[in-house]
Amino acid sequence: MKEFEDVVQPITPEIAKLLTDGSKILDEGLRYGVYLYEIIYESNHSRTRVADMVLGLMFREVLEVVDGINILLKSSCVVASKPLVRTLLELYAQMKLIIEGNSENNARAYMVCHIHLQIDTFQKPDNEGVSEKEEDAEIIKNLLKVLHSSEYKEIDSRWIKLYKKKGYHPNWYNIIEKPRKSINALLEAINDDETCRIVYGYLSMSAHGFTAFNKLEVVGDQYEMTQLRHPNSFASTTNFAMILLCDIYHCLIERYLSKEDEEKFTEWFEERMVLCNELAAYEKSYLKY
């Protein structure tokens, strides 16, 4: 009987080099992100606009998602990393729409959706079937005060109207002044590259479990399990994660920093893309799939 280790792709010297080189690229991307976060947010505590807060929290989530992608790719878990790359794409699209549109109103729409999710959480009964404990009721009261305030009331009314129509919580980009029905519509709204929409479709198939037949192997008249943790498409997954990460950095640098900072970033980005191209060339030349 086969053991789990029998169906895991062995780490050859060639694969080890691929994993190490890819990890270095994403490690550098993450370190640059921490540096950006510090100079954009931690060095300027006076930023009090809603958009600044929402973008800052989304930026932190971006770094956590890329860290997760990197950890998975270091172990050659390429298939498991792809849904996280899709999450990164969705974060990029949302951040770009907040930045390029009516930033404050778009960020308030994001907050309205978040507040309603919080209210739902506090209204759920606990293990003993008791709902809305005294402290939870006070939190809900304060959250409702925010929704009923002049800044949020109109957006909240859109949320309520759509919730009654759909029967489930709408996304924030469904309730903005020019609503978008889906992430695909969101990518169109930000005039993004066609490649993003194509790759989003591919990543969606992977996230929803529609790529199982890509791993089918038939020997004679029997199915045979192909090796797990195979590094197939490692380079393209790494590259796409890095490109998305850098697109997010560029949006934030344009919004918050100087032209000189933007020029320095462009130089850094181009150097990283050279490494990404070298990674793809190595995978194609030295690994036999």
Task: Characterise this structure.
InterPro entries: DUF5677. This protein has 289 residues and is mainly alpha-helical. The chain folds into two domains: 13-102 and 177-287, Up-down Bundle (Fumarase C, Chain A, domain 2), CATH 1.20.200; 109-166, no CATH class. It has ten helices and two strands, in the order H-H-H-H-H-H-H-H-E-E-H-H. A two-stranded antiparallel sheet has the order 1-2. A hairpin with a 2-residue loop joins strand 1 and strand 2. Helix 1 packs antiparallel against helix 10. The radius of gyration is 22 Å and the shape is globular. The model has no long low-confidence stretch (mean pLDDT 88).
Strand-helix topology:
Elements (H helix, E strand, L loop, with lengths): L12 H30 L7 H25 L3 H23 L2 H21 L10 H14 L5 H14 L16 H7 L4 H14 L10 E2 L2 E2 L10 H23 L2 H28 L3
Antiparallel strand pairs: 1-2
Helix pairs in contact: 1-2, 1-9, 1-10, 2-3, 2-4, 2-9, 3-4, 3-7, 3-8, 3-9, 4-5, 9-10
